[in-house]
Each structure stands twice: as C-alpha cells, then as structure tokens.
C-alpha cells in the first residue's frame, strides 16, 4: 500500500524563488597558449586545437618549475570575494555556502570550509559536492532549495584545479595528455538570493538527473592514497568514444526536459550556455540543440565546474528583462545531465 502513496511520475521539479544577484570569477596566472602546450608535451598544435577546442588556458602550477601557484581555496575565495563585493555583502550577510568541485585541495578538511574561513564567514551551513562538470548546477540546485525565510542569501561556487593530475617530470612525448588536465583551472561564484534585486537573473527551474544506470563510466579520476602509490593504473582515464556518442544525446534530453519543466518553447530562448566539452563534441552538441552559443569562452578554456559561473558572468552583462536563457552541463564520469533555465528581471 505504501508504494501507492507517492507517484514519482507525478512529481514536478520546482525551484524555490531564487535570483542570481552577482557573480565573480578567478583564473590563475598568465594564459598558456597551444604553442606552449605543444612545446612542453611534444604535442602538435593542430591536435590540441581540434581535441581540446581552446586557444589558451590558465594553470594553477608553473609548467616550467612544477611549483603550485594557486590552490582551489585561493581561486574559490577570490571568486566569492568578487561576487560578494558586487552584491555589497559582508561575511555576516551570507547564510550558507555550497561548493561544487571534482578536485578539492584535500579529502579533509573540506575545501568549502577553507574558503569560508578565508572569507571570514562563520556559523553557517556549508556543503561540498564532489562531482565533475555537472557539479556547478548541482550546487545551484541545492542552493535554490536551501533558500527560505531564515536563509535569504547564499554563495554558490564552482571550481576546479585539474592540473594537479598532470605529472610534469614525466616524458609525455609518446602519450597525449588527457583533455581534462589540458583544459584549465579556475573558479566562479554567484550570490543567490530569495528576494528580487534589480538587475538580477531569475532562476526558473534546475534539472539534476543521474542518467548512468548500467553504463560504464566515461571518465575515471583516481585519488591515490599512500597505500596506492604502487598502483600501475593511470590517474585519469577517459573513454573519448563514449563521451562523443553519449554527451550530445544527454544534452538533447536535458534541453527538452528543462524546457518542458519550465513551460518554455525553444523559439523563445535568447541565449544558450552549452556544456564546455572537447572541441568537436562541443560543436556537435551546439548543432544538436539548434541554438547558437552566445557565451563562447574558448579563450579561457574548459574549466570544469567553474564554466557555468563564467557563463553567468557574461550573461549578466547581456540579458535584458524577460529574455530567456538555458544552461546545460553534462557529467561524463558516470553520466549526469543537468540544466537550468534563467530569465532577465
């Protein structure tokens, strides 16, 4: 009898009233172009351009010395501080903080708490979501649900430092580096509020769907402990064929589902914020969705969980009242599709 009390098919995904008030972004160091990548790893520039799909990227380490220049905490705190300044907030104004990342500084303590400490934020709820490219929208989904009468303002962060998986003292001339580690490092943040603020962007619906039942992972990133140092497996593995085949399908499904949830027709959309993926896959996804990418960020590379926040940052300067946008993120490691519909207010 209990099985009939709740019907999953009758549930509707409804995001609480939420508004992106301000955004912040952070990139480490000077840009590294494709020619520098080719010289460092013995890779031809044509391959980097075609496979990675970007002209340059920023790394949180110095490629010449191997010295770490920025941590995830550094970048996350910088992006948050910028977002808080844009909204005129002090640390005591923030009611919660949510971080989405696939590359925390350590297993413990949680990087989200290091960011909070750096910002002077105390006595609030903090959450850290361990996820790949969909983690930013998962964090946004959670933040929307946390907003209530007692929690009026939250910080949402998406950040990744993937270059930590790149072994700089190894001869890579015979092995092409992973697209993940050649993408780039960075962080983005947004101030989320329950009340309408002039110039903000309304979050209408958020989609967050695990879609990998019975599917092999498309990406594996291992975190080796001291007992695993002799493990011969590579720290990063990617099934490029599976990613190229499944990502366009999941993106199309995400677009259809999020627009259906919101009650919007594709023709009413003004902006597409597409998933940032390896070059040819990204172009295929955009073509599949029959919309034009209007927040193209190839000059800063694919930044994992930071990407949607860089897109939101660009969108805030462009979107007008009642214009509509949709952002899509696809997580290939165990196949998550995520999306959000946004509207200028």
UniProtKB/TrEMBL annotation:
Catalytic EC class: transferase
Keywords: Acyltransferase, Transferase
EC number: 2.3.1.180
Residue ranges of every copy of the Beta-ketoacyl-[acyl-carrier-protein] synthase III N-terminal domain listed in the record: 129-195
Superkingdom per UniProt: Bacteria
InterPro entries for the chain: ACP_syn_III_N, Thiolase-like
Gene3D superfamilies hit by this protein: 3.40.47.10
One example GO MF annotation: beta-ketoacyl-acyl-carrier-protein synthase III activity
Pfam families per UniProt: ACP_syn_III
PANTHER family linked to this entry: 3-OXOACYL-[ACYL-CARRIER-PROTEIN] SYNTHASE 3 (PTHR34069), BETA-KETOACYL-[ACYL-CARRIER-PROTEIN] SYNTHASE III (PTHR34069:SF2)
Protein name (record): 3-oxoacyl-[acyl-carrier-protein] synthase-3
Originating organism: Kibdelosporangium banguiense
């Amino acid at each position: 009898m209990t099985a009939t009390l709740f019907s999953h098919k009758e549930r509707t995904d409804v995001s609480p009233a939420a508004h992106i008030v301000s955004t912040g972004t952070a990139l480490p160091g000077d840009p590294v172009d494709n020619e520098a990548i080719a010289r460092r790893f013995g890779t031809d520039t044509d391959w980097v351009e075609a496979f990675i799909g970007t002209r340059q990227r920023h790394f949180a380490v110095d490629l010449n010395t191997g010295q770490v220049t920025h941590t995830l905490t550094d970048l996350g705190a910088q992006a948050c501080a910028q977002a808080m300044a844009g909204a005129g907030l002090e640390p005591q104004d923030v009611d919660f903080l949510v971080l989405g990342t696939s590359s925390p500084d350590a297993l413990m303590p949680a990087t989200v708490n290091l960011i909070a400490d750096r910002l002077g934020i105390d006595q609030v709820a903090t959450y850290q979501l361990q996820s790949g490219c969909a983690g930013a929208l998962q964090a946004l989904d959670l933040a929307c649900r946390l907003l209530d009468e007692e929690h009026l303002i939250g910080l949402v962060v998406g950040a990744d430092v993937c270059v930590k998986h790149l072994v700089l003292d190894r001869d890579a001339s015979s092995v092409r580096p992973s697209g993940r580690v050649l993408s780039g490092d960075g962080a983005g943040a947004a101030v989320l509020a329950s009340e309408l603020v002039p110039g903000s962007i309304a979050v209408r619906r958020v989609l967050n769907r695990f879609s990998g039942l019975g599917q092999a992972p498309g990406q594996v990133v291992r975190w080796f402990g001291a007992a695993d140092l002799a493990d011969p497996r590579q720290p990063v593995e990617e099934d490029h064929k599976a990613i190229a085949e499944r990502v366009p399908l999941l993106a199309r499904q995400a677009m259809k589902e999020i627009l259906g949830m919101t009650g919007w027709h594709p023709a009413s959309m003004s902006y597409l914020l597409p998933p940032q993926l390896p070059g040819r896959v990204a172009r295929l996804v955009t073509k599949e969705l029959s919309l034009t990418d209007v927040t193209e960020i190839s000059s800063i590379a694919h930044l994992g969980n930071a990407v949607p926040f860089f897109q939101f940052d660009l969108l805030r300067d462009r979107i007008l009242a009642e214009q509509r946008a949709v952002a899509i993120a696809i997580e290939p490691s165990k196949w998550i599709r995520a999306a959000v519909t946004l509207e200028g207010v």
